[in-house]
Amino acid sequence: MTPQQCLLIGNSRWHWADRAHASRWLFRHTDPLVEPLPKTSTPDRWAAVGKIPAALSQHADQQLLLDQVPLKDAPPWLGIDRALAGWGAWLRSGGGEGVCVVDAGTVLSLTRVTAAGCFGGGWLCAGLRLQLQAMGEGTAALPALGPDGPCLDPCPTFPAETASAMTQGVLQSLLGLIHGAQLRCPGPVWLCGGDAPLLFPELKARGVEVQHTPNLVMETFVDLVS
């Protein structure tokens, strides 16, 4: 059966692909659904890096597994989202050079794929909101910042206000990590994930060659199962 809906369960968001017609998909990103899942929310194909609901675990035959992604030399512990992003970026680049893929989600993952299409390692660090959460929970004086609060609005490079200083500090740390990786791995950085819109203009301002592909993971998912 040709799939009409695909789902990737992330750590903090669920990522959906809905077939609009034969060759066009619509992508959306939602909060996790609460069990029991509505019957209309049972996808044709699914994958997971986050907690798998009991309702979906009963449909194991519909799960996309890591060994079904054609990324060479992928270790068994690699998250399927990283494998999909890496393989998808390598294909879209023409398959003739290595790529560096940044998925800026709950955890910022940086994945290197070699010119031969092999997994080449990478870096992992806490993403923007996770770092802000850790500062709020790990200190007595710093505020707890919500995921969509005013702290994510544009702010000066060296802000005086505490919440903006926290946000700018985390943002600059992530930008420095990506820029440093690009210096070690010449070529474009492929950028996706929920925090990508915050990072993209800043990376361009630093002269980083970056390809922003917001739905890279889910586009690769549907290409693979269609």
Characterize the structure shown.
With 226 residues, the chain is α/β, with parallel strands linked by helices. It has two domains: 5-62, no CATH class; 73-225, 2-Layer Sandwich (Nucleotidyltransferase, domain 5). Helix content is 31%, strand content 23%. It contains six helices and nine strands. It has helices spanning 54-57, 80-92, 128-138, 162-184, 196-205, 216-225, and strands at 5-9, 14-21, 24-30, 45-48, 99-104, 107-113, 119-126, 189-192, 210-212. Strands 7-6-5-8-9 form a five-stranded mixed β-sheet, sandwiched between helices. Strand 2 and strand 3 (24-30) form a beta hairpin. Helix 2 (80-92) crosses helix 6 and helix 4 (162-184) crosses helix 5 (196-205). 32% of the residues are buried. The model has no long low-confidence stretch (mean pLDDT 89).
Features:
226 residues; alpha/beta; Nucleotidyltransferase, domain 5; four-stranded mixed β-sheet; 6 helices; 23% strand; globular
Secondary structure elements and their pairing?
Elements: E1 5-9, E2 14-21, E3 24-30, E4 45-48, H1 54-57, H2 80-92, E5 99-104, E6 107-113, E7 119-126, H3 128-138, H4 162-184, E8 189-192, H5 196-205, E9 210-212, H6 216-225
Parallel strand pairs: 1-4, 5-8, 8-9
Antiparallel strand pairs: 1-2, 2-3, 5-6, 6-7
Helix pairs in contact: 2-6, 3-4, 4-5
Quick structural summary:
Helix content is 31%, strand content 23%.
Fraction of residues in H or I helices:
25-40%
Q: Helix/strand/pairing class, anyone?
A: alpha/beta
- What is the CATH superfamily of the largest domain? ATPase, nucleotide binding domain
How many strand units? 9
**Secondary-structure element order, N to C:** EEEEHHEEEHHEHEH
Strand line-up of the largest beta sheet: 7-6-5-8-9
CATH class designation of the largest domain: Alpha Beta
Q: Main β-sheet, in a few words? A: 5 strands, mixed
Approximately what portion of the residues adopt beta-strand conformation?
Answer: 15-25%
The overall pLDDT, averaged over residues, is 89
Rg over alpha carbons = 18 Å
Number of helices: 6
Distance N terminus to C terminus? 9 Å
The CATH architecture of the largest domain is 2-Layer Sandwich
Low-pLDDT runs of 5+ residues are: none
What is the fold-level CATH name, i.e. the topology of the largest domain?
Answer: Nucleotidyltransferase, domain 5
Kindly give the count of domains. Answer: 2
**Shape, per Cα inertia axes:** globular
